[in-house]
Amino acid sequence: MDRESIEKQVKELHQLLNQYGYEYHVLDNPSVPDSEYDRLLRELQDLEEQYPEFITPDSPTQRVGGVALSEFKKVRHQTQMLSLANAFSEADLRDFDRRVRQAIGDDFSYVCELKIDGLAVSLRYENGIFVQGSTRGDGTVGEDITANLKTIRSIPLRLKEPYSLEVRGEAYMPKKSFLELNKIREEQGKQLFANPRNAAAGSLRQLDPRIAASRNLDIFLYGIGDFGTTGVTSHHKGLDLLEKLGLKVNKERKQCHSMEEVLEYIEKWTNERSQLNYDIDGIVVKVDSLEQQNQLGQTAKTPRWAIAYKFPAEEVVTKLTSIELSVGRTGVITPTAILEPVQVAGTTVQRASLHNEDLIKEKDIRIGDWVVIKKAGDIIPEVVYVLEERRSGTEIPYQMPEHCPACESELVRLEGEVALRCLNPKCPAQRREGLIHFVSRNAMNIDGLGEKVIGQLVALELIKDPADIYYLTKDQLLTMERMGDKSSTNLIEAIEKSKSNSLEKLLFGLGIRHVGAKAAATLAEHFETMDRLASATIEELLQIDEVGEKMADAIVTYFENQEVEQLLTKLKQAHVNMTFLGQKRSQTADEDSYFYDKIVVLTGKLQQLSRNEAKEKIESLGGKVTGSVSKNTDLVIAGEDAGSKLTKANELGIETWDEVRFLEELP
Ligand code: IVH
Predict the structure, then answer these.
(1) Average pLDDT of the residues in 169-177
(2) For the residues 114-126, what does the mean pLDDT come to?
């Protein structure tokens, strides 16, 4: 191929990948299966490796830059980054409305937006190319976090039109990513993030962009440094323009023509904010017309044309009756406060994690204390502080034990960790947690083996390690409480079925330190068999992009252990699959299947299969499962109690099936 056609091919790949990335990350509505995106990306990577002169800053391969920085450069914003004055009540909002009317009269409208709880950032585009991203800093000078921002997939590296502008927005961590991140950190004995905002800010302040890349951050854009340069005349038209350029703008924005409408919007979101998959801490109210904004002007740091209504944090008082300890899969000891049940933000709370010993000391939490509870990041119950003035003198200061509550081994605090750990690999509590992990959804996914059943099987000494699960007999199961003929047959079948899982599920289930579900998938794809992975050297492991030193070390140490060797032999003898089937699956994704290249939405409750199983089946047949119904959806499979997605599908005239019809179509 001559150079010209190579360059053309590279450009075509950029365009296609940018389009698919946009559909997936900004519109939340992919038009091709992930495998197609990955295939094109690999094709581009190969070309760029051969012809590095064609690598451009907006290439989709340039999202995660290689090197860690030693410090962030300072960046002067072209236009000052203002913050907002706050309103805490209807009266504050009415005062604001009065001030606005005094200055510009009654002929105006507001735009209401969700106030995203993250970190304010500015993105600079030159001729449509993303050239620099920065934090707010003091509003005039911020820090250059371009490399970290590039890892956010919904930030386009090239706009749909060659505009030069500074766009403003809020980078945030979705609630789901926050929960997953803290779960991993808890297992690793690391300090937890208090809420998604701190987690987002902490991730964007990392000097090594690979850390930000692993944190699944997202962004909403809500403004332009200087709207005037774009020719738009109102804020809402400015947001429409940003959307048209391919930037992610929050859909819930609304034009309001009176304070009554603003208050209705606030009431709606006060009630519904817990259903969003990101945190908001209030509502921003902005005068829409840019001319009127100019008339109103600004104070030193805040505009007079906008205000942030802040939701009241829901805090309640209850009594802490005791502290319970649990031993995690990796031996981390977690104290949990047991509370007299109270209602907080819509649910009954009777437990709150105290995370570690330092936190108990720092807050001086004693048994019998009256404590203030809130939900951190609106999700996780947390003890905010103790009401010392309500102490009677009978409260008992808490002392963490020196020995494991499950196996009596001495507890240790590893260097650099805040958690206390039990290091006994034979600790029954750790084993039990390890078994629960082994059978869980993203691991071997054995239906019918929940925490309770595992607890019983361990107590009856029917299983000690994961391989024992594969030697259970129906007669043994029948000796258990509440286990009848049908449930034991189903369980044996589910265990049998899990034997043919692809390698990554087993690998994740084994619970090797630092190997999460994603790393397990990468390792399985790379090494293809357990034996090959088990004999890999540190150097070989480090050649894989996503494997760092800690993980490589943990993998090698894991496979050196004799007990592990015996466990793997026992699993092999039970015919548990130890090869990677992913590749094979996509090769067999036969083009004759109904699902091939189809975009499918699952909704409602399925009886025969779990959501995950249904998704895997569709994907293995070459289909793509997405979360929301749009005109690109080919099929909606509706289980029981299907709601708005089914209605929407009917409105759009999209084909809908019930579960029976779906099962008929499966091979
Ligand atoms: S407008 C001149 N709109 O809230 C207007 N801010 O102090 C400047 N925020 O950290 C801000 N969502 O990043 C605006 N829809 C939204 C917002 C929003 C979140 C943040 C902003 C800043 C704080 C305001």
Answers:
(1) 95
(2) 96
User: Residue 116: CB within 6 Å of ligand 1?
Assistant: yes
pLDDT at 585: 40
160 is catalytic: no
pLDDT tens figures, 334-388: 999 999 999 886 678 999 989 899 999 999 999 999 999 988 655 678 999 999 9
Least confident of 66-70, 158-162, 416-420, 518-522: 66-70
222 lines ligand 1 (CB under 6 A): yes
Span 313-326, average pLDDT: 92
Q: For the chain, give the mean pLDDT.
A: 91
Report domain extents, the chain.
3-63, 86-310, 315-397, 428-573, 599-665
Provide CATH code, domain 428-573.
1.10.150.20
**Nearest 5°: CA angle at 102, between 99 and 107?**
105
Task: Kindly name the residue from 8, 73, 115, 160 that is annotated as catalytic.
Answer: 115
Residues 320-337 have a mean pLDDT of 95
Residue with the smallest CA separation from ligand 1 atom 10 is 120
Q: Which of 185, 200, 198 is nearest to 355 (CA)?
A: 185
Residue with CA at minimum distance from ligand 1 atom 4: 115
> CATH class for domain 315-397?
mainly beta
CATH superfamily of 3-63: Helix hairpin bin (1.10.287.610)
**Cβ within 8 Å of residue 493, ≥6 positions away:** none
Task: Say yes or no: CB of residue 279 within 6 Å of ligand 1.
Answer: no
Top mutation candidate among 84, 173, 236, 250 for ligand 1, by most atoms within 8 Å of CB: 84
Rg (CA), the chain: 28
Any atom of ligand 1 within 6 Å of the Cβ of 113: yes
Count of all residues that appear for the chain in the document: 667
Helix (H, G, I), strand (E, B) or coil at 320: strand
The token pair that represents 127 in the structure block? 């001729």
Is 428-573's fold the same as 599-665's?
no
Residues 6+ away with beta carbon under 8 Å from 472: 457, 462, 463, 492, 495
Which residues are CB-neighbours of 390 under 8 A, at least 6 positions away?
Answer: 369, 370
* pLDDT number for residue 652: 84
Ligand 1 probe mutation, 115, 224, 301, most atoms within 8 A of CB: 115
* pLDDT band for position 583 (cuts 50, 70, 90): low
Please work out whether the CB of residue 308 comes within 6 Å of at least one atom of ligand 1. yes
Domain over 86-310 is classified CATH 3.30.470.30 = yes
pTM listed for this prediction = 0.62
pLDDT reading at 495 higher than 90: yes
The response to whether residue 284 sits with its C-beta less than 6 Å from ligand 1 reads yes
Residue type, 128: G
Given ligand 1 and candidates 86, 168, 284, which is best to mutate, with the most ligand atoms within 8 Å of its CB?
284
